[in-house]
Amino acid sequence: MKITVDFEECLKDSPRFRATIEEVEGDVCELESKLDKLVKLCIGMIDAGKAYNAANKQFVNGIRELAQQSTKDEVIERRQGVPFLVILFDQAQRSIKTQLQTFVKDDLRKFKEAKKQFDKVSEEKEAALIKNAQAPRNKQHEVEEATNILTATRKCFRHIVLDYVLQINVLQSKRRSEILKSMLSFMYAHLTFFHQGYDLFSELQPLMKQLGGQLDQLVVDAAKEKRDMEQKHSTIQQKDFSNDDTKLEYNVDADNGIAMEGYLFKRASNAFKTWNRRWFSIQNNQLVYQKKFKDNPTVVVEDLRLCTVKHCEDIERRFCFEVVSPTKSCMMQADSEKLRQAWIKAVQNSIATAFRDKGDDGEVRKLDRKSSTSTGSLDSGGEPKERSLKGESALQKVLAIPGNSCCCDCGQPDPRWASINLGITLCIQCSGIHRSLGVHFSKVRSLTLDTWEPELLKLMCELGNRVINQIYEARREELGARKPQSGDPRHEVEAYIKAKYVDRRFIRRPSDEELRTKVVSLSKQEKRLSSSSEHLPPRAPPPTPKLRPVKSADSGIQNSADGSREMLAATPSNNNAAEPPPMPMPATLPPPSPCKEMAFYEPKEYSPGLQLFWASCARSLPDMAEALAHGAEVNWVNTEDEKRTPLIMAVQGGSLVTCEFLLQNAANVNQQDAQGRGPLHHATMLGHTGQVCLFLKRGANQNAADIDEKTPLAMAVEAANADIVTLLRLAKMNEEMREAEGPYSQSGDETYQDIFQDFTHMASNDPEKLNRYQQYEPQRP
Predict the structure, then answer these.
(1) Are the C-beta atoms of residues 312 and 331 closer than 8 Å to each other?
(2) Which of 326, 357, 388 is a domain's end point?
């Protein structure tokens, strides 16, 4: 259903809404004029038809007198045409004149009455707003009186404008069916009249039947649309509008490019310092305003990066704030304190976003070196500094990696940006160029403004500028290509970056023998030696683990022996309505080693995809990055090894960081192998709780079943792995809650978010607490 005037938009009373109302009112006036003209023409046609009917009767009588001695058949047949004319004009009288006149007098009259009420209450609201704005802060009784009048006027305006919009939408929906119904009835009258000429109308009859079906559908649709609009009208009317001031929110990703908009009073720069109410908006890194929707916006601030915003308490008017730029300042007034704070915060966020997203040539370097301090100063005094502290912590850890203290592409010191799928640090200019390449080449994130997840931060620390440059710049000196410096023009830096990452011009392609040696070496590498805390427990046989039976739904959440939080079974599994107790685990069962029992088979051919396949198992991120640079498909399928993918091999290797690296490079988290098992199945079978948590956060389908019709939850319950059962069931409960709350629900329950965050930090910082011994042996051919 297409609504002519949006109910939500009418509550804003924006210039866009006013422009739509003017267009609709003009359309209705034009419709009324054309309907009046049509009714008058119909009356003239009926009068002419009556005269024709009388003359036709006289003509028939003349024929009858002439043919008194002839057969009466032709006369009788001719006389049968007379009542058809009467029926035709009688039907025209009822279908066009009466019906359309009723529509004009009733529906259009209601529309005009609603328009009068809307115009009246609009004037009253405008007067109340002006009076409220003019109320001096030192006269409390005038302030209270103006506030009360404004509140009552707003409430009345909401009811009137919602009723008016409802009347408009119903009228626009109804007029189509009314006009079509009139025309169809008139056409059927002609069909009856031209009975003897039915062959001429036979071609139109299918169309008329189609129109009849459309009429029935239109009537049904109109009734449904009316019910839906009345329901929406009632729903909006029942909403709590006591806090209208909180409806304005800053949205940097808005579809129309407008981050925030609303009415503000603006003090003129003339000698009289008059205040005018204007529609302000933040868009395209500018602060603009307009009086009417069709007017060209007037720019207040050309570049938000060069301005600041502050409260104004030294003037008589309330709720004022000032936006100051190097060339001028603009004094504005909101309707309330909440709106003032919202606008101040929106301007501050826009300034921060402008610092992050824009910058050219010489100005770029200045902003890059000061990005962390300048954006930090934009936070309001009452906001916590937790976000900036997280950013500084991430900055220190990433820049501590050798080679990361300078931009990977131009060498500018002290970078503040990173490409998370490449694992490199960038200056602000190079980050803008990387962002223009598209996320399939580079995903850019700020080291100071964004919050970093633990596994992503570890990924950045595993790679770095030196590792990536050894891959992507291997033949640069051999080809004589000059690497740009921090002071070079932007177009030269951009050309170099595209040649490096898009065209991959400086990569050294391995020979077939080198590729074969690399793949064989990776396939034999069971365990990557490093100091990473992700490594699985040592091979020494552990003591017999204590199995924790799955309890009923009342068991809730409890602490396990190793200190991790567990939620025991909340609901029975679909595939295991009554699960038997798990089989006891042998005391001599060793923990799984990376890529256990992954025998290497001589492949038919060696390819970068095969290198990525075995590098993922060996947990060698540099080799994985090299394989991707050489053109390996991140979702490459090994048809000779049960259709396993690099992501499944990363699960077998037991590394959380390798899984994160593949996911950041667009790996499919739900791609299945020949056994119908995806990465979530394999992580559950191996008891890799951190990987299960990561896959659920990345949208893994926990309802997918393998060829044995087992879901990850069924496997986790059978293995008595309470941590993974907790994660799977919490994710399922959270998904069901969001579906029940509808499309406007939030991202999830707070408890769900907290528990997943705990597991995320534990998987990255204390993985030994989450490792579970292998319950399922890989099914090898």
Answers:
(1) yes
(2) 357
The pair of structure tokens assigned to 695 is 């896959």
Residue 347 sits in which domain range?
246-357
How many angstroms from the chain centroid is the CA of residue 211? 39
CA geometry: angle 453, 455, 457, nearest 5 deg: 70
**Tell me, what amino acid is at 333?**
Q
Distance CA 543, CA 541 (A): 7
Q: For residues 281 and 258, is the Cβ–Cβ distance under 8 A?
A: yes
- pLDDT tens digits, 555-610: 333 333 333 333 333 333 333 333 333 333 333 333 444 444 455 566 767 788 88
CATH number of the domain encompassing residue 35:
1.20.1270.60
**What CATH number does residue 642 fall under?**
1.25.40.20
Tell me the CB-side half-sphere exposure of residue 434, using CA atoms within 13 A.
Answer: 27
pLDDT at 420 (0 to 100): 92
Give the model's pLDDT for residue 195: 67
The residue out of 299, 330, 357 marking a domain boundary is 357
Same domain, 495 and 417: yes
Q: Are residues 322 and 464 in the same domain?
A: no
Q: With respect to residue 542, please indicate whether it lies within any of the assigned structural domains.
A: no
**Quick one: pLDDT at residue 629?**
92
Tell me what the mean pLDDT of segment 705-709 comes to.
Answer: 91
Confidence at 554, pLDDT banded by 50, 70, 90: very low
Domain co-membership, 232 together with 279? no
Task: Give the DSSP per-residue string, 82-144.
Answer: HHHHHHHHHHHIIIIIIHHHHIIIIIIHHHHHHHHHHHHHHHHHHHHHHHHHH--TT-HHHHH
Q: Tens digit of pLDDT for each residue in 252-300?
A: 556 666 878 889 999 987 778 889 999 898 887 788 888 877 777 888 8
d(C-alpha 295, C-alpha 282), whole Å:
16
Beta pairing, strands 308-312 & 286-290: unpaired
| Residue 441 vs residues 420, 438, 463, 602, 777: alpha-carbon distances, Å | 11, 6, 16, 32, 37
Residues 394 and 342 in one domain: no
Closest by CA position to 527, among listed 654, 683, 684: 654
Using DSSP's 3-state secondary structure scheme, residue 444 falls into strand
With respect to residue 43, please indicate whether it lies within any of the assigned structural domains.
yes
Residue type, 608: P
**330/36 Cα distance (integer angstroms):** 52
Same domain, 448 and 344: no
Q: Within a 10 A sphere around the Cβ of 238, how many other Cβ atoms?
A: 8
Structural domains counted in the chain: 4
* Residue 302 predicted with pLDDT over 80: no
148 and 276: one domain?
A: no
401-417 exposure pattern, b = at least 16 Cβ within 10 A, e = fewer: bebbebbbbbebeebbb
Average pLDDT over all residues of the chain = 75
* Whole-Å CA distances, 63 to 55, 66, 195, 248, 326: 13, 5, 21, 81, 98
**Residue 312 sits in a domain of what CATH number?**
2.30.29.30
Whether 545 maps to a domain, the answer reads: no
Residue-wise DSSP of 714-764? HHHHHTT-HHHHHHHHHHHHHHHHHHHH-TT--S--HHHHHHHHHHHHHHH
* Domain annotation covers residue 1: no
β-pairing, 298-301 vs 565-567, is unpaired
For the chain, counts of helices (H) and of strands (E): 27, 12
Domain CATH for 486: 1.10.220.150
Whether residue 204 is found in the same domain as residue 351: no
Q: Are 551 and 569 in contact (CB under 8 A)?
A: yes
Query: What is the CB neighbour count within 10 angstroms for residue 709?
Result: 10
386 touches 445 (CB < 8 A): no
User: Can you give the pTM of this predicted structure?
Assistant: 0.46
Same domain, 299 and 444: no
